[in-house]
Design a protein that fits this description.
The complex is a heterodimer of chains A (419) and B (98). By secondary structure, chain A is of the alpha/beta class. Chain A folds into two domains: 24-79 and 184-255 and 347-418, FAD/NAD(P)-binding domain (3-Layer(bba) Sandwich); 96-181 and 256-344, D-Amino Acid Oxidase, Chain A, domain 2 (2-Layer Sandwich), CATH 3.30.9.10. Chain A has helices at 6-14, 42-55, 87-101, 103-107, 125-140, 150-156, 184-197, 241-247, 311-324, 369-386; strands at residues 32-38, 60-63, 79-80, 118-122, 146-148, 172-176, 180-181, 201-203, 208-214, 217-223, 226-235, 255-267, 275-278, 283-287, 292-303, 333-344, 350-353, 359-363. Chain A is globular. The termini of chain A are far apart. By secondary structure, chain B is mostly beta strands. Chain B has a single domain, classed as Folate-binding fold (2-Layer Sandwich), CATH 3.30.2270. Helices cover 13% and strands 34% of the residues of chain B. Chain B has helices spanning 34-42, 86-89, and strands at 2-5, 9-12, 17-21, 50-56, 64-70, 76-81. Chain B has a four-stranded antiparallel sheet with strand order 3-4-5-6, with no helix packed on it. A two-stranded antiparallel ribbon of chain B has the order 1-2. In chain B, a hairpin with a 5-residue loop joins strand 5 (64-70) and strand 6. The model of chain B is unreliable at 86-98 (pLDDT under 50). Classes of the chains: A alpha/beta (419), B mainly beta (98). At the A-B interface, helix 8, strand 12 and strand 15 of A face strand 3 and helix 1 of B.
Chain lengths: 419, 98
């Protein structure tokens, strides 16, 4: 398969772009594999990639119900950051950040990772203190963080309203400079190509309809394209976790599926060259390389498997945007869409062996799954290959809820709609 | 989305507060059955389809409602007062009227 390089671009440009080969094959599923990964989104594909690359396990199939990357990997707002408070989260997401920093090179695929920074705004002195505490916790673990004054924020984002007469005056912010954005589709495609060229079969339009079992042990899956056996079956199905677990006879999980909306405006000239988050509500915004403002807010707030959102949240998100940027009042919204998020009971993910023998589980990403894509796959591949977690995902067990070991960064309790 | 409050009639969803899975059963307050408490606090049914859930008409009559809503289409097939229903009475504040 062709390496992508300046030379190959030039060569193909001169020959009419006729010689490009597909980035991955479209194989029919074999009768059995060493590992089946259910879910051809970012996490499933990165899991397959790291299984092959780090652990030499290449007899792997990734089964995708729809087309590759049709779920949340193509529906998020592409933010990548590691600005958490609790050490378990900070270590995991910082590992992800380090993988991001070398990802384009590693995959030989430009994921357009742009470290433009992520700035959390504070609107009260108490909130500013809280950001300082989080920043200190980050720096303590070697992650970059710096407090910014209102004047520095105004210099960085001139369009923002920092006047004392704003509805929620800004008193400062916490900046992580290494945070940024990436091209989400390219992440899925890059991992797919990387896994495929190492021998992984990516099988699209192949819905899992049940599990093959030998007693308690999972020995494979039945799919719309026939039965496929495997020594190990790994789930990376995000918002569909509840549904797929029900196929395995597990009716309840510490997870609720909620819909999260995202929005993009018409293209503007450069106006926001960082990721901004509002502190007096739930709102975040960045600007894509194409010029569109990419932004979002809260979950709709009730269980949903519909990949579309409701209007009250649209209203709320727009009003939050205008509270920060009154000057954007006449900008037109181009598109909005929704993705189904697997909201866990403490806002942190689950990457673990089990809960049934032969099964491996990766879920509970809430609305933070995109930034985790590299580390999620990396840790999940480790867990599948070695039948034990890596130290980075050891805190993210399924039974932590029942043992008093929750990892609740926001301190919100078992109320998924508020994480 | 409109929710038909049995007392107030059809009202916009923004008047309501979602209180989640209505299938959970709260153990008796004195219970020391850890499994039952864990299941009550953390386990959710989360179906793709009809979902039995509790809402409060917090921007209206403040009644707690038991609603059956389809999580794929948002179609609501039944709405009733949750009062008198001991499973959902668990969600009332201690000492509150039901």
């Amino acid at each position: 398969m062709a390496e992508y390089s300046a030379f190959s671009l030039l060569k193909n440009a001169l020959t009419g772009n006729k010689d490009w080969k597909p980035a991955w094959r479209k194989p029919d599923p074999k009768a059995s594999y060493d590992v089946i990964v259910i879910g051809g989104g970012g996490h499933g594909l990165s899991t397959a990639y790291y299984l092959a690359k780090e652990h030499g396990i290449t007899n792997v199939a990734v089964l995708e119900k729809g087309w590759l990357g049709s779920g949340n990997v193509g529906r998020n707002t592409t933010a990548v950051r590691s600005n958490y408070l609790l050490p378990a989260n900070t270590r995991f997401y910082e590992h992800s950040m380090k993988l991001w920093e070398n990802l384009s090179h590693d995959l030989n695929y430009n994921v357009m990772f742009s470290q433009r920074g992520c700035l959390n705004l504070a609107h009260t002195p108490g909130q500013f203190d809280d950001l300082a505490r989080r920043g200190n916790a980050m720096r303590h673990l070697g992650v970059d963080a710096e407090l910014m004054t209102t004047a520095e924020i105004k210099r960085l984002v001139p369009a923002i309203d920092v006047s004392g007469s704003a509805r929620f005056p800004i008193v400062g912010g916490l900046m992580q400079r290494r945070a940024g954005t990436a091209r989400h589709d390219a992440v899925a495609w890059g991992y797919a190509r990387g896994a495929d060229r190492r021998g992984v079969d990516i099988v699209e339009n192949c819905e899992v309809t049940g599990f093959l079992r030998d007693g308690d042990r999972i020995t494979g899956v039945s799919t719309t394209r026939g039965e496929i056996r495997a020594k190990k079956v790994a789930l990376a199905v995000a918002g569909s976790t509840g549904r797929v677990m029900q196929l395995a006879g597990i009716d309840t999980m510490p997870i609720e599926s909620h819909v999260l909306q995202a929005f993009v405006s018409e293209s503007l000239k450069p106006i926001i060259d960082t990721i901004l988050t509002f502190g007096m509500g739930h709102f975040y915004i960045s600007q894509s390389d194409k010029g569109g403002l990419v932004y979002g807010g809260d979950l709709d707030g009730y269980n949903s498997y519909a990949q579309r959102g409701s209007l009250p949240i649209v209203d709320e998100v727009m009003s939050e945007m205008l509270a920060l940027f009154p000057g954007l009042a006449r900008v037109r919204m181009l598109r909005s869409w929704g993705g189904v998020c697997d909201m866990s009971m403490d806002g942190s993910p689950i990457i673990t062996t089990g809960p049934l023998p032969g099964m491996y589980l990766n879920c509970g990403w809430c609305y933070g799954g995109f930034k985790a894509t590299p580390a999620s796959g990396w840790c999940f591949a480790w867990t599948i290959a070695k039948d034990e977690p890596h130290e980075f995902n050891a805190p993210f067990t399924l039974d932590r809820f029942y043992r008093g070991l929750v990892v609740d960064d926001k301190g919100q309790g078992a109320t998924p709609r508020l994480h | 989305m409109l929710i038909t409050c049995p007392y107030c009639g059809p009202r916009d969803v923004i008047e309501f507060t979602y209180q989640g899975d209505g299938n959970r059963e709260r153990p008796q307050p004195a219970s020391q059955n850890l499994d039952a408490w864990n299941a009550y606090v953390y386990d959710r049914l989360n179906p793709a389809g009809d979902h039995n859930e509790i809402w409060q008409h917090s921007g209206g009559c403040r009644a707690h409602l038991r609603v059956v809503r389809n999580t794929l289409t948002h179609e609501i097939s039944s709405t009733a007062f949750a009062r008198g229903d001991h499973k959902s009475a668990a969600r009332h504040k201690a000492g509150g009227k039901s």
